[in-house]
Write a structure and sequence with these properties.
Keywords: DNA-binding, Transcription, Transcription regulation. Belongs to the LysR transcriptional regulatory family. GO terms for molecular function: DNA binding; DNA-binding transcription factor activity. This protein is an alpha/beta fold. The chain contains 11 helices and 11 strands. It folds into 3 domains: 8-77, Winged helix-like DNA-binding domain superfamily/Winged helix DNA-binding domain (Arc Repressor Mutant, subunit A, Orthogonal Bundle), CATH 1.10.10.10; 88-165 and 273-297, Periplasmic binding protein-like II (D-Maltodextrin-Binding Protein, domain 2), CATH 3.40.190.10; 167-271, Periplasmic binding protein-like II (D-Maltodextrin-Binding Protein, domain 2, 3-Layer(aba) Sandwich). Strands 3, 4, 5, 6, 7, 8, 9, 10 and 11 form a 9-stranded mixed β-sheet that branches. The protein has a two-stranded antiparallel ribbon with strand order 1-2. It is globular, with a radius of gyration of 23 Å. The termini are far apart.
């Protein structure tokens, strides 16, 4: 058995450096000085007797062994956090610190309705929120940076447990008085190529909208330039095209102050599933199920 075991702090420094690729940024993310972080990693290398990081003035490059150690460090840190969660779960339900990542096409529309009630009814819950795209949020979950994720399905989440929150119907948003604006529901066949405005890469709503339309030519011709749903609405209001909006955004008043109208999409799978996910076999499963109940009640 090794006479030396790395400390969790050293592994946290190593993981932070791998994530940020820069000693200064990694130190800021770890809330320590750059010299403290650098010394911690050097001590880890010295006592293990290996080089994990190749250093130069401009580049930080991990060795092949260094990358393997980082992968193992992620698992160790996650296990350590779950150990702390296990102790915390033995106390009051849905209390203490909980970190949740939320995707941008949900956060501004659902959370303002829910957070005031959560603060009022669950005063012992300290909920830390992070807005991330679906891919980044799932990575945060599996790397232990987030305890749970509120996102839209279908999406490849890996090995997780989940709770259904709601089905969120998709709508087609047109400029007011658009001659192609039909009464009632809008079939995908009425969406003209080259007019569909979608979110940029990294937002799963884009894929949900295109999948619901089931028209491969739309995927090739869609103009993906929006960084947020609010941006897309303003572009539609300016007559630049049409877009897809989830019902929760409409309910939250995203069209207020515009002349944009929205019609339900008439398609077989014209909705996305809102779900809360967490790591499989998490000791805080009861907390997450209670949080899902709170989200459903919102």
């Amino acid at each position: 058995m090794s006479t030396y075991l790395p400390t969790l702090k050293q592994l946290q420094y190593l993981v932070a450096l791998h994530e940020h690729g820069h000693f200064g940024r990694a130190a800021d993310a770890s809330f320590v000085s750059q010299s403290t972080l650098s010394a911690g990693i050097r001590e880890l290398e010295s006592l293990l007797g290996v080089t994990l990081v190749e250093r130069s003035r401009r580049v930080v490059r991990f060795t092949a062994l260094g990358n393997q150690v980082v992968a193992k460090a992620h698992r160790i840190l996650r296990e350590a956090e779950e150990l702390a969660d296990l102790v915390q779960a033995a106390g009051k339900p849905l209390a203490g610190e909980l970190s949740m990542s939320v995707i941008p096409t949900i956060a501004p529309f659902l959370l303002p309705r829910i957070l005031p009630r959560l603060r009022r009814e669950r005063p012992e819950l300290k909920l830390f929120l992070r807005e991330e795209t679906s891919q980044d949020a799932v990575e945060s979950l599996h790397h232990g940076r987030a305890d749970c994720v509120l996102l839209a399905l279908p999406f490849d989440t890996g090995e997780v447990e989940m709770a259904h929150i709601s089905d969120d119907r998709l709508f087609v948003a047109f400029p007011a008085n658009d001659p192609r604006d039909p009464p009632g529901e809008v079939p995908p066949s009425m969406i003209e190529e080259g007019r569909l405005l979608l979110l940029e890469d990294g937002h799963c709503l884009r894929d949900h909208a295109l999948a619901a339309c089931n028209r491969p030519e739309l995927r090739a011709s869609a103009t993906m330039i929006g960084t947020s749903l609010h941006t897309l609405v303003q572009m539609v209001d300016g007559g630049l095209g049409l877009t897809m909006l989830p019902e929760m955004a409409l309910d939250a008043g995203i069209l207020t102050g515009t002349k944009v109208v929205a019609r339900p999409l008439k398609a077989k799978h014209a909705s996305r599933e809102i779900a809360l996910i967490w790591r499989k076999n998490s000791p805080r499963r009861e907390d997450f199920e209670l949080l899902a109940e709170e989200l459903r009640a919102g």
